[in-house]
Amino acid sequence: MELIDKKIVITGGTSGIGLEVVRAVAPLNQVIVIARNSEKLSQLADTFNITPYQCDLSDLEQVKQTATAIENDHPTLDVLINNAAVQFAPTFISRDFSYDNIENEITTNLTSVCCLTSILLPALLASSDAAILNVNSGLALVPKTSSAVYCATKSALHAFSTSFRYQLADTHIRVYQSLMPLVETNMTAGRGSGKMSPEEAASQLIRGIERGVEDNDIGKVKILRWLTRIAPSAAAKLMKAS
């Protein structure tokens, strides 16, 4: 699929990887951005030719209302990029752990993806050539010690993407994943080293869509995937220590 003259919906398009995707595709496509921060959305709309929709993806009623509004405003869509995610690092035994973050993380990272995809599916089916891309993480393959709920949502997103791909096999909609390494974003500030830039992550994400790569292992995820195949215990030990 060539990303030219497409109608593209992207969540979390005001920062990080999502913002870089918007920068790359907005000049040649009609881009619809869903994000929580209305001020950032307004600034983005002043900079790029995008259509903004304010929505807190941790609130499923807002997700339903926003997705319904998009479907009504845009009966045909070509690409849906489920990019937005949140991650809370404290372990369950940490003093900083918050019970309230459990639902927030699951809803934002997984449930809202399922709901948004469900409501926008008719508009995607109305296109002659459509794609759904779920931005995932290498943690979907092997979890780490911290961020247990985040790891669980990414593993579940991997299963959802695979099953949903099977369901749409006889349609013209293709279901893709981009499995990201550690990327330099606000979410990963102060954690880890050797991070990929959001510009490079976005570039490889877009390249994966255009080349039709179903599960696009980006950066160090290629090594992790290889390690899970030849030495799964070593992969688990590596991620446990990360």
From TrEMBL:
The keyword Transcription regulation does not apply. Keywords: Oxidoreductase. It holds the Pfam family adh_short. It comes from the Bacteria. Coiled coil: none annotated. The keyword Transmembrane does not apply. InterPro entries: NAD(P)-bd_dom_sf, Sc_DH/Rdtase_CS, SDR_fam. GO terms for cellular component: membrane. One of its GO terms (molecular function) is oxidoreductase activity. Belongs to the short-chain dehydrogenases/reductases (SDR) family. This is Short-chain dehydrogenase. It comes from Veronia pacifica.
